[in-house]
Amino acid sequence: MPGAHYAGAVSEPITYAAAGVDVEAGDRAVELMKASVRRATRPEVLGGLGGFAGMFDASALAGMTRPVLATSTDGVGTKVAIAQALDRHDTIGFDLVGMVVDDIVVCGAEPLFMTDYIATGKVVPERIAAIVSGIAAACEQAGVALVGGETAEHPGLLDPEEYDVAGAATGVVEFDDVLGPQRVVAGDVVLALGSSGLHSNGYSLVRRVVEAAGWALDREVPEFGRTLGEELLTPTRVYSADLLHLIRTDGVDLHALSHVTGGGLAANLARVLPQGVFARLDRSTWTPPPVFTTVAELGRVPRADLERTLNMGIGFVALLPREQADLGLRTLEARGIPSWVLGEVTDLEGAPVEDGVEVVHGAKGVEGGAVQVVGEHPLA
């Protein structure tokens, strides 16, 4: 209380700035990011940047029969360490948006709006603005409005150059249009959608391998055609707009989607399969990009561990009736998404299960269908 005297009190006043928090730097960061955020909008957004809450006009939902809201939240893991080491911060936003909005489209929902959160040891306005510019650019690509966010300065908890990012998004889908296990049937074909690289999963493994091998981020790697750091910082491919286009394509009755993130291909596919079916995936249908084989060879990483950790060149899978596979592939290729037939779904009883090869039945608390990955990748 004013006028009170306490034993051990300091002789000089301590301000918020002296404690390591620069409010004015935060304000400057907001000014620098405004132009980027303005581009990541939709007609339904109400108000502007700087409010206590982002507002979104949901009156269009009244015209839906049974609107179902879908929400997701995520971060980008230790990939931020690569961005910090290279002092390049304008791509990490694509990783954040991809991890969040592409989980929403898995159930067939259209992502509507997103918010972000950045925690840092010291607010450097230009760095914060660069991060947000990437988030906004990815939101614009995905057709998602960036309606707000928060930047928090945490001196003493994070070093001045350290930061972490997280985000959350909301989407909507008609109840009758929800994708998932309830639609999948024996005879469906599994399409693979190529990734842009590592995306945002498994970086603790990758960074450990690189460190153990003594490779510097500025090392030129002929197989990559660029430096190691540039390869590791490759932005996550954001699929939501392309997948929504596929969902809305006449002649395509999409049954299920799976986002290949932490846990790998087999486990994430099993999560969207009903019990009693079996998906057989064939490695001979694709060659993983060089970054995956490089990590495997440098770290002598066992294949099982590698495939449970990294996407191996497949960022999404889509399940649809066999007779629609060609149309699905043409639609994706026209959108610039490399895709191919990866496998097929059969009834589990009597399925062509290969002896001695692991069968995955689910992950993250979901007991789904059975998935087995067989064969060998073609040589690059």
Task: Kindly list the characteristics that best describe this protein.
380 residues, 7-stranded mixed beta sheet, alpha+beta
| Class per helix and strand makeup | alpha+beta
CATH class of the largest domain: Alpha Beta
Strand order of the largest sheet: 10-12-7-13-11-15-14
Low-confidence stretches: none
Helix content: 25-40%
Count of helical stretches: 11
Integer tally of domains: 2
CATH superfamily of the largest domain: PurM-like C-terminal domain
Mean of the pLDDT scores?
92
Shape: globular
The succession of helices and strands, N to C, reads HEEEHHEHEEEHEEHHEHEHHEHEEE
Strand content: 25-35%
Give your account of this protein's structure.
- The chain has helices at 23-39, 79-86, 92-104, 125-142, 203-213, 228-232, 240-247, 264-270, 290-299, 303-309, 325-334; strands spanning 45-46, 55-56, 67-75, 110-120, 145-153, 163-174, 188-194, 220-221, 226-227, 256-259, 277-282, 314-321, 339-347, 360-363, 366-374.
- It has 380 residues and is α+β, with helices and mostly antiparallel strands.
- The strands form 4 sheets. A 7-stranded mixed β-sheet has the order 10-12-7-13-11-15-14. Strands 3-6-4-5 form a 4-stranded mixed β-sheet, with helices on one face. The chain has a two-stranded antiparallel ribbon with strand order 1-2.
- α8 crosses α10 (303-309).
